[in-house]
Protein backbone atom coordinates (compact mmCIF):
# COMPACT_ATOMS: atom_id res chain seq x y z
CA UNK A 1 0.00 0.00 0.00
CA UNK A 2 1.26 3.47 -0.89
CA UNK A 3 1.20 6.18 1.75
CA UNK A 4 -0.14 8.61 -0.85
CA UNK A 5 -3.87 7.91 -0.87
CA UNK A 6 -5.18 10.53 -3.31
CA UNK A 7 -4.75 14.00 -4.78
CA UNK A 8 -7.55 16.40 -5.67
CA UNK A 9 -7.60 19.51 -7.83
CA UNK A 10 -10.21 22.16 -8.45
CA UNK A 11 -10.53 22.79 -12.20
CA UNK A 12 -12.56 25.18 -14.36
CA UNK A 13 -14.49 22.43 -16.17
CA UNK A 14 -14.49 19.04 -14.45
CA UNK A 15 -15.88 17.16 -17.46
CA UNK A 16 -13.24 18.59 -19.82
CA UNK A 17 -10.42 17.96 -17.35
CA UNK A 18 -11.71 14.45 -16.74
CA UNK A 19 -11.58 13.72 -20.49
CA UNK A 20 -8.04 15.13 -20.66
CA UNK A 21 -6.71 13.05 -17.76
CA UNK A 22 -8.62 9.93 -18.81
CA UNK A 23 -7.00 10.00 -22.26
CA UNK A 24 -3.58 11.31 -21.20
CA UNK A 25 -3.23 8.74 -18.41
CA UNK A 26 -4.79 5.81 -20.30
CA UNK A 27 -1.32 4.44 -21.14
CA UNK A 28 -0.73 4.20 -17.36
CA UNK A 29 -3.95 2.23 -16.88
CA UNK A 30 -6.07 5.09 -15.49
CA UNK A 31 -9.85 4.92 -15.94
CA UNK A 32 -12.83 6.77 -14.49
CA UNK A 33 -13.69 4.89 -11.30
CA UNK A 34 -16.48 7.06 -9.92
CA UNK A 35 -18.49 10.18 -10.72
CA UNK A 36 -20.06 12.05 -7.80
CA UNK A 37 -23.01 14.26 -8.80
CA UNK A 38 -23.26 17.88 -7.60
CA UNK A 39 -25.93 17.15 -4.99
CA UNK A 40 -23.49 14.85 -3.15
CA UNK A 41 -20.46 17.17 -3.09
CA UNK A 42 -19.26 19.87 -0.71
CA UNK A 43 -18.83 22.48 -3.47
CA UNK A 44 -21.96 21.68 -5.51
CA UNK A 45 -19.85 20.70 -8.51
CA UNK A 46 -19.28 17.35 -10.14
CA UNK A 47 -16.36 15.22 -8.90
CA UNK A 48 -14.55 12.63 -10.98
CA UNK A 49 -12.32 9.98 -9.43
CA UNK A 50 -9.80 8.37 -11.76
CA UNK A 51 -7.38 5.61 -10.96
CA UNK A 52 -5.88 2.21 -11.58
CA UNK A 53 -7.15 -1.11 -10.27
CA UNK A 54 -10.53 0.23 -9.18
CA UNK A 55 -9.24 2.83 -6.69
CA UNK A 56 -9.71 6.59 -7.39
CA UNK A 57 -6.40 8.28 -6.54
CA UNK A 58 -6.85 11.39 -8.73
CA UNK A 59 -9.91 13.54 -8.06
CA UNK A 60 -11.07 16.49 -10.17
CA UNK A 61 -13.89 18.84 -9.22
CA UNK A 62 -15.37 22.13 -10.32
CA UNK A 63 -17.41 24.91 -8.70
CA UNK A 64 -14.36 26.11 -6.77
CA UNK A 65 -11.53 28.40 -7.90
CA UNK A 66 -8.76 26.35 -9.56
CA UNK A 67 -5.87 25.95 -7.17
CA UNK A 68 -8.02 26.80 -4.16
CA UNK A 69 -9.41 23.27 -3.87
CA UNK A 70 -5.99 21.57 -3.89
CA UNK A 71 -5.97 18.55 -1.63
CA UNK A 72 -3.56 15.75 -0.78
CA UNK A 73 -4.29 12.70 1.37
CA UNK A 74 -1.94 10.26 3.03
CA UNK A 75 -2.97 6.71 3.97
CA UNK A 76 -2.06 5.13 7.30
CA UNK A 77 -2.74 1.74 8.85
CA UNK A 78 -3.90 2.93 12.30
CA UNK A 79 -6.46 5.49 13.45
CA UNK A 80 -4.08 6.67 16.19
CA UNK A 81 -1.82 8.03 13.44
CA UNK A 82 -4.70 10.12 12.10
CA UNK A 83 -5.14 11.58 15.57
CA UNK A 84 -1.40 12.22 15.96
CA UNK A 85 -1.22 13.97 12.57
CA UNK A 86 -4.10 16.29 13.47
CA UNK A 87 -2.64 17.16 16.86
CA UNK A 88 0.87 17.85 15.50
CA UNK A 89 -0.36 19.76 12.45
CA UNK A 90 -2.37 22.13 14.66
CA UNK A 91 0.57 22.52 17.04
CA UNK A 92 2.84 23.56 14.18
CA UNK A 93 0.53 26.22 12.76
CA UNK A 94 -1.97 24.32 10.65
CA UNK A 95 -5.64 25.34 10.72
CA UNK A 96 -8.29 22.75 11.51
CA UNK A 97 -10.45 21.69 8.58
CA UNK A 98 -12.00 18.56 10.10
CA UNK A 99 -11.31 16.81 13.39
CA UNK A 100 -10.45 13.10 13.39
CA UNK A 101 -13.52 10.95 12.86
CA UNK A 102 -15.51 8.68 10.58
CA UNK A 103 -16.65 10.22 7.28
CA UNK A 104 -19.76 8.13 6.55
CA UNK A 105 -20.36 9.95 3.25
CA UNK A 106 -17.34 8.01 1.90
CA UNK A 107 -17.81 4.71 3.78
CA UNK A 108 -18.20 3.39 7.33
CA UNK A 109 -14.45 2.85 7.91
CA UNK A 110 -13.16 6.15 6.45
CA UNK A 111 -11.46 7.64 9.53
CA UNK A 112 -9.79 10.93 8.59
CA UNK A 113 -8.63 14.33 9.76
CA UNK A 114 -8.09 17.48 7.68
CA UNK A 115 -5.83 20.49 8.22
CA UNK A 116 -5.06 23.51 6.06
CA UNK A 117 -1.30 23.98 5.72
CA UNK A 118 0.22 27.51 5.96
CA UNK A 119 -0.64 28.12 2.27
CA UNK A 120 -4.23 26.90 2.55
CA UNK A 121 -3.74 23.46 0.97
CA UNK A 122 -6.09 20.89 2.46
CA UNK A 123 -3.97 18.04 3.90
CA UNK A 124 -5.69 14.82 4.96
CA UNK A 125 -4.54 11.68 6.73
CA UNK A 126 -6.90 8.72 6.43
CA UNK A 127 -7.19 5.19 7.78
CA UNK A 128 -9.69 3.10 5.82
CA UNK A 129 -9.45 -0.05 7.93
CA UNK A 130 -12.14 -1.23 10.35
CA UNK A 131 -11.33 -0.44 13.97
TrEMBL record:
Domain VOC residue range list: 3-128
SUPFAM superfamilies: Glyoxalase/Bleomycin resistance protein/Dihydroxybiphenyl dioxygenase
Domain of life (superkingdom): Bacteria
CDD domains linked: VOC_like (cd07262)
Organism per entry: Pseudomonas berkeleyensis
Protein name (Swiss-Prot/TrEMBL): VOC family protein
PANTHER family, A to Z: GLYOXALASE FAMILY PROTEIN (AFU_ORTHOLOGUE AFUA_5G14830)
Amino acid sequence: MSILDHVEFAVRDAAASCRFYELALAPLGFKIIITVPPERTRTGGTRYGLGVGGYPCLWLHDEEEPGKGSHIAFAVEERALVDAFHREALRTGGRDNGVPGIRHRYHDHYYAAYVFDPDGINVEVVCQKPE
